[in-house]
Amino acid sequence: MRRSVRGISAALLCLTVAGAWRPLGDPLKLAAESRVWFDGTSTVRSWSCKATQIDAVIDADAGAVANVLKGQKAVKTVTLTFPTAKLDCANGTMNGHMMKALNGTANPNITFALSGYDLSAATLVKGTLNGALTINGVTKPISMPAEFSAAAAGALHVVGKYSLTMTEWQVVPPKLMMGAMKVGPVIVVNFDLLLNN
């Protein structure tokens, strides 16, 4: 019985010590209203696809929203994941061509991992997000301009856009109707994110 009590006491002591050494962070959550979408062109018409699912893991210091709005770096890491099967162009045929172009079966996710950022304090805080973007299994460094502002209920509003050339990620722009319709190689990634403590 004494051994059992000692074992339980030792286990509780270990858990207490481990808890005391955990980093003091304040993970941010991506609000459901957050949006990411992609605009492109073709020889026939322009098009747009949206990410209907965004998985986010964000680690930040306590009070991150207020500090970022002061132009202070308070976010440690950000990883955003977009399942390719959850990208929607509001057209089933186009969704199929997009999945094929992105090799969605072999590479089921598009990811962005933040590696660093710069901020400039002003009425509207502006900055540059640096990180690694993975599309079609190819990872390349990118730098995206962004704007940060206060939103309702103490949320952080982050907006921006970034132009990329699909072929740099080894994505072949789709051709439809026997080549009569060709998708342009440049797309614009738009993001409108709300982050809550």
Characterize the structure shown:
The protein has helices at residues 2-20, 64-69, 92-101, and strands spanning 29-30, 35-40, 47-51, 55-60, 75-83, 87-88, 109-120, 125-135, 138-150, 156-165, 175-176, 181-182, 186-196. It is an alpha+beta fold and 197 residues long. The protein has a single domain (25-196), classed as Lipid/polyisoprenoid-binding, YceI-like (Lipocalin, Beta Barrel), CATH 2.40.128. The strands form 2 sheets. Strands 1, 2, 3, 4, 5, 6, 7, 8, 9, 10 and 13 form an 11-stranded antiparallel sheet that branches. Strands 11-12 form a two-stranded antiparallel ribbon.
List keywords for this structure.
197 residues; alpha+beta; Lipocalin; two-stranded antiparallel ribbon; disordered N terminus
